[in-house]
Input
Amino acid sequence: MNAVSVDKISFCYGSEKNILDDFSLDIAKGSTHIIVGQSGAGKTTLLKIMGGIIKAKKGKVTVFEKNLENKKDVERARKTIAYIPQNLGLVENSPAIQNILLGCLNRIKFTDTLTGFPEKEKTNAAEIAKSLGIEHVLNKKTGLLSGGEKRRVAIARALMQNPKILLADEFVSDLDYENVKHIMKLLEKMKKQYGLTLIIVDHHKEYVKKFSDKVTLLERKN
Ligand SMILES: Nc1ncnc2c1ncn2[C@@H]1O[C@H](COP(=O)(O)OP(=O)(O)OP(=O)(O)O)[C@@H](O)[C@H]1O
Ligand SMILES: [Mg+2]
Output
């Protein structure tokens, strides 16, 4: 079974030329799939189409073999997908634990958090943080954390969503090899624990191959 499939999709921003043109890709359930390509090739755009954040102009997108046709399909699919943006999208002024807890807002109503997050979610967040080895930084301001710690906070926030698919954009690109190894090993552990499919965008082709089941190269249209 495929976790995500895009079939002959095309996409352009406004009236600009196509960034993706008749592009197809299948991502097997449970795999670690890495998408590489030059800057401007459309990696972020493709990831956002897979996550139902933006819609292809042409072609078909399926998540666990269900078409993303209307708003309802997209909403249903997005409950299974966690997306970590290129800049991580963390609130730097808030403690790490607040950032992690934000992940559960796709499952519970914001109004249920007005007097604080439910105890159950706090316990869940603490357990996830512990499994990622960041329990000691939970009360620290996120902006003060190291690059590796911030990434682990972003993973923890994503896991709070109970996803089946994790999309991570340029997640390890600016780390040195030792840290890449560390983060990829952690992701692999989380993948097994949560039954995830990992789709990761990266700039480098060579070293990420070691950590993936498949690498797709996206060519830039000039
Ligand atoms: N919101 C937007 N409006 C107009 N053009 C955009 C928008 N977002 C991206 N683009 C353009 O689309 C092309 C593909 O962008 P995209 O961000 O998908 O590339 P990328 O492969 O992720 O690049 P990078 O490796 O630099 O992150 C680029 O030429 C970019 O300038
Ligand atoms: Mg990008």
User: Anything to note?
Assistant: The mean pLDDT is 91. The helical segments are 43-50, 71-78, 96-102, 119-131, 147-159, 177-194, 206-209.
